[in-house]
Write a structure and sequence with these properties.
Layout (H helix, E strand, L loop, with lengths): L11 H9 L3 H13 L3 H12 L3 H12 L6 H10 L8 H28 L5 H27 L6 H23 L4 H66 L4 H20 L9 H16 L3 E6 L8 H18 L4 E7 L3 E8 L17 H10 L3 E7 L2 E9 L6
Parallel strand pairs: 1-2
Antiparallel strand pairs: 2-3, 3-5, 4-5
Helix pairs in contact: 1-2, 2-3, 7-8, 9-10, 11-12, 12-13
Length: 409
């Protein structure tokens, strides 16, 4: 049994629910009921918190035991692939602080128990509120420390609940301490006076604070704009200006100038409006690279339009190779612009390669020419996909389709 990560305070209820196989809500209700019976639930919860390890501590113990025995290479590789070859960051520091605090708390309780047994005059009406304040502060500090360690942009609901519980402990303990020295009426009057002072200070300082916040936001926006301008200028220098210099040197070659301009236009559009989250192994990125290579090799314009993204499916390499062959054939045998449309859905990836040439008869291709039959149709069929060619006087369209839910053999 270990304490669960799904926790409001320490994960005791979650770990007990997972260990016993019962709903978490029933365990929490049971602890609340036991807490109403003379605080038995609180003592049981504290006892389990001390003696039941957390998931991180159990993970660390497993790593230590793993390092003391011999194992095979397959076991080592399996551990590396599962990502469990090292403990999570920060667990040693949190565990050390928690153990230190628990040890100090147990020592203090032992001293108090000895004093009670020997007849000391112990003011429990002051000790219990003080313990509540200390527990609330420690609980809040632990939450902030974990939030910094995990680098979360937004705090989770359990984080907020534990933080609120710590705040309630601190406020309740302070009120109980003050209630032992002043009357209830004086305490209530003091609270109203403190609230009035806070409201007055907020009203006085609000304009200054608002202006300071606006200045901070404006300065940060100015820095971000300056950084964006610098990045934009660097990219223009490395790409557009360099391409313009090459175009000036090759101005006597119209085809080369047109191709360079087309390649630069695609790169600039992709940098300005493209999806920068796509991985280099995405099918769209691979087909775009093939189209750019054909443009530079054959000095032809190839326009690629894409919808969606997909990667890692069984027939991806066959689809990319067939698309490259279709674009290469269009660049060699057809005139005008070549258009490539890629559509990725949840079921399949479709690629359409269109040109505006004079067309050809698919059945009239000589038997010794394997570019269309084997490199496009045969390659797609062997990979589990489909290729369909429509050709006429207005041009040719090659349709390639590859399913995504196919298991790789």
């Amino acid at each position: 049994m270990v304490r669960s990560e799904n926790r409001l305070i320490a994960g005791v209820c979650g770990g007990l629910a997972e260990h016993l196989g019962i709903p978490l809500g029933y365990v929490r209700i049971g602890f609340l009921g036991l807490s109403a019976l003379g605080g038995i639930g609180i003592l049981l919860y504290a006892w389990l918190w001390v003696f039941v390890p957390s998931a991180e501590e159990a993970h660390a113990d497993e790593l230590r035991s793993w390092g003391t025995r011999s194992r095979s290479l397959a076991e080592e590789m399996n551990r590396v692939q599962q990502g469990i070859f090292r403990p999570r960051e920060g667990w040693e520091r949190n565990s050390t602080w928690r153990d230190t605090l628990i040890g100090a708390g147990l020592l203090a309780l032992a001293v108090l128990a000895y004093g009670q047994w020997t007849g000391w005059n112990i003011r429990w009406d002051l000790i219990w509120p003080s313990l509540g304040v200390i527990a609330g502060i420690v609980l809040a500090w632990i939450q902030f420390d974990e939030g910094i360690t995990e680098h979360k942009k937004r705090p989770s609901l359990p984080f907020l609940l534990r933080l609120a519980f710590g705040l309630v402990l601190v406020i309740g303990g302070l009120l109980a301490l003050l209630g032992n020295t002043v009357g209830a009426a004086d305490l209530l009057g003091g609270l109203w006076a403190a609230l009035a002072i806070i409201v007055g200070a907020v009203v006085v300082l609000l304009p200054w604070g608002t202006r300071l916040w606006r200045d901070f936001i404006a300065e940060r926006s100015s820095r971000q704009a300056a950084a964006q301008r610098a990045e934009f200028a660097a990219h223009l220098h490395d790409s557009v200006l360099q391409t313009l210099a090459v175009i000036q040197k090759r101005s006597e070659d119209p085809a080369a100038v047109r191709t360079l301009a087309r390649v630069q236009e695609r790169e600039l559009r992709q940098w300005l409006y493209g999806n920068h989250d796509l991985d280099d192994e995405d099918v769209i990125v691979e087909i775009q690279h093939e189209a750019s290579h054909i443009e530079q090799l054959l000095l032809r314009d190839v326009e690629v339009i894409s919808v969606g993204n997909a990667q890692g499916f069984a027939g991806q390499q066959a689809l990319v190779a067939a698309s490259r062959e279709a674009m290469m054939n269009a660049a060699k045998h057809a005139e005008g612009k070549i258009s490539v449309f890629i559509e990725c859905s949840a079921e399949q990836v479709e690629v359409y390669v269109r040109d505006r040439g004079t067309g050809f008869e698919v059945d009239g291709i000589p038997a010794d020419r394997h570019g269309v039959r084997e490199s496009i149709i045969g390659r797609m069929e062997r990979a589990g996909g489909m290729a369909h060619i429509r050709s006429g006087e207005s041009g040719t369209e090659v349709q390639l389709s590859m399913p995504l839910n196919m298991e790789e053999e």
